[in-house]
């Protein structure tokens, strides 16, 4: 039997995971949480009540949502500041693998968005994306054709999701996919705080000839709530930063995944 300290630690971890799910989707139901954690509705309602007292969520009958749209935006901005230099470096390196005339799929996320800051060398490009912010950012660029998937709009991630978003990719053929992830582990694969995007990400993978996972090194050897059900043969490259260890590089390359390490800008290195 677990000690009281261990029980409190488990409870805190569960509430953090619940909050991750709500930040990902904007809302969650009590039913979905009881199924995900295998707990009673009473326990889940207690968790949501505590998260509401802490100012993170607003409960409603049968579920909870983030407090306000303004707070959702704040969460996004805070996340964008996390590992900002690393994400920008990854974006610059990833952009080098995009060529004129490519058809590219961009997953939603802060790291994939960083790629779009380094496309000055591109004159012709077809982009398919679930990311509304990427569509808005690239939509006015001459020579870039944008296809934005349909589906349910998720404000916290500024993306579309669900069955309609997944079905959009049924007849899509793309040279490259730049795929985001919450966590990546050689042993446990890619994982996410919510299962709502899993079908969409699998549909993207099936539509792409080459798959690049873009993830800063803080996400390596971590695991989130829901695993992406694909094997490593579908993942060709991992683009990350110099925080990855030699052992981690070796572990991924043993699985057939080529690791590309993005250097920080010279000015940033001198400042460190």
Q: Would you kindly provide a brief summary of this structure?
A:
The chain is α/β, with parallel strands linked by helices and 272 residues long. The protein has 11 helices and 15 strands. Strands 6-5-4-9-12-14-15 form a 7-stranded parallel beta sheet, sandwiched between helices. A 3-stranded antiparallel beta sheet has the order 1-3-2.
Q: Top keywords for this entry?
A:
7-stranded parallel beta sheet; 272 residues; alpha/beta
- Series of secondary-structure elements, N-terminal to C-terminal: HEHHEEHHEHEHEEEHEEEHEEEHEH
How far apart are the termini?
Answer: 46 Å
Strand order, biggest sheet? 6-5-4-9-12-14-15
Binned, the helix content reads 40-55%
Question: How would you sum up this structure, described in words?
Answer:
It is a single chain. The strands form four sheets. The protein has a seven-stranded parallel beta sheet, sandwiched between helices. It has 272 residues and is of the alpha/beta class. The chain is built from eleven helices and 15 strands. 41% of the residues lie in helices and 24% in strands. The N and C termini lie far apart (46 Å). The chain has helices at residues 4-25, 30-37, 41-53, 69-81, 84-95, 110-115, 132-138, 163-167, 198-207, 246-254, 266-271, and strands at residues 27-29, 57-60, 63-66, 103-106, 125-129, 144-148, 152-154, 159-161, 174-180, 183-185, 189-192, 208-214, 226-227, 237-241, 258-262. Strand 14, helix 10 and strand 15 (258-262) form a beta-alpha-beta unit.
């Amino acid at each position: 039997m677990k000690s009281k300290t261990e029980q409190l630690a488990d409870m805190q971890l569960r509430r953090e995971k619940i909050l991750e799910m709500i930040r990902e989707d904007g809302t969650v139901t009590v039913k979905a949480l009881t199924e995900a954690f295998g707990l009673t509705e009473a326990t889940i309602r207690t968790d949501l009540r505590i998260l509401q007292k802490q100012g993170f969520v607003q409960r409603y009958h049968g579920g909870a949502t983030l407090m306000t749209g303004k707070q959702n935006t704040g969460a996004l901005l805070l996340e964008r500041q996390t590992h900002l230099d690393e994400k920008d470096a990854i974006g610059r390196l990833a952009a080098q693998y995009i060529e004129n005339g490519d058809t590219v799929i961009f997953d939603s996320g802060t790291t994939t968005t960083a790629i779009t800051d380094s496309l000055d060398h591109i004159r012709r490009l077809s982009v398919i994306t679930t990311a509304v912010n990427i569509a808005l950012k690239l939509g006015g660029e001459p020579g870039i054709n944008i296809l934005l998937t349909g589906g349910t709009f998720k404000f916290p991630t500024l993306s579309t999701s669900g069955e309609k978003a997944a079905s959009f990719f049924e007849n899509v053929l793309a040279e490259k996919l730049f795929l985001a992830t919450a966590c990546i582990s050689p042993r446990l694969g890619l994982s996410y705080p919510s299962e709502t995007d899993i079908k969409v990400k699998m549909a993207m993978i099936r539509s792409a000839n080459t798959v690049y996972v873009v993830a800063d090194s803080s996400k390596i050897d971590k695991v989130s709530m829901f695993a992406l059900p694909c094997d490593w043969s579908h993942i060709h490259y991992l683009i990350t930063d110099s925080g990855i260890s030699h052992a981690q590089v070796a572990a991924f390359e043993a699985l057939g995944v080529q690791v590309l390490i993005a250097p920080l800008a010279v000015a940033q290195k001198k400042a460190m």
